[in-house]
Amino acid sequence: MNSGNYYQVLGVSPSASLEKIKAAYRQRLDSLRQQIHSENHPDGAFLGDLRLAYATLSDPAARAAYDASNTTHVPPAISVPPAKAEGDAPGREGFRFTGQGAEYFRIWIVNFFLSLLTLGIYSAWAKVRREQYFHRNLLLDGSGFDYHAEPKAILKGRIVAFLLLMGISAASRLGEGVHLLALAAFSVALPWLVIRTFRFRAINTSYRGLRFGFEASYGEAFKVFVGYGLLIPLSLGLAFPLYYRQVRKFLIDHLRFGTTRFSSELGIGTIYRIFLMPGVMAIATAVVFFGAFSLLKYGGAHSSSKMLLGILVALTPMVFFVVTLAYLAASTANAVWSSTSLGPHRFSCKMPVGAYLKLSLVNWLGILFTLGLFIPWARIRMAHFRAAHLSLTVNGSLEDFVAAELSKTSAIGDETAEMFDLDIAL
Fold first, then answer.
1. N or C, which end of the chain has less CB nearby within 10 Å?
2. Which of the two residues, 6 and 241, has the higher pLDDT score?
């Protein structure tokens, strides 16, 4: 190559800034990814040239050496891409959400009325519109995610879920034995349904044109969702944190991006410490509630205090619910994401529990006083907050990692969403 060829591969001038080089590289990658999902697969040789050109021109020292060489050979110092590789100093890439409340409200209100008018049938199309909006407005390193599901597949999954629920309900009216048999049959089917659902979600989610994937065996799913699930009633609820940990670890460990797997190091002790606080709060709430209720019922308080006691009795369960829900949501998200890695890259989540609680309270009050019309703004506010406190520590170059996954999926072929056309989730 002569000194201009790397610039020609990227489609930029020799005087292009680093920002323009990055933008051009992403545009070239996007074009190649579109070819992967069409009948024409990208030229592997061009992909290699593209990666080498970007690795050279995005590194100031390598670019200066390349410009100065003015020969048909790549300088020996950069005979392999000098972009940060595994083992180099990691860089932090933050997530960012760009959606707006008023913008999403228009989507939400149309979805609501069309779902109502069609007796819920349109809800499958509504879900696709909602997911596409939130996926496309969630950015990592300037690029958004995407959602590709077909509404008919979602509708089919919901029909399956509805029939299962109706079957269990009908069995309960035919006698205890029939009901138990129906529940046993559902337990056998549950792991299969879970696998199909998460495969569907994963393969219909992409980042920079590359699809996610989910692979798990029936036996693994049965052990988690049925085996650990049975421990909850047997332990009088004490095994629920263990069940929660196993479910989260199962879902993460079997997820992949391209060909690279996610992995979770979520500890059992971490989860039990998180769930210990709601237990203490539940005991304190019960003491306050029953104490106030006893004073109110048996007349142990003066008449002037009865109104305050009534308010306390009414509000205590609600406050406990909101505070506990916010605490668990923030704390478990921090623990789960901060123990998750994608190959050599590691996630970090640091949502302040107090700020999350404040945001949740405002959202609940907004929904309450607007009779539900504040729901779109509440969801947007929460999405902004969660994205702002989530980041990915990249070991090397994110662009190079995605490009490598692109070449791997191009070589082995990509899965199609039609293989996993079932989603029972709302």
1. C
2. 241
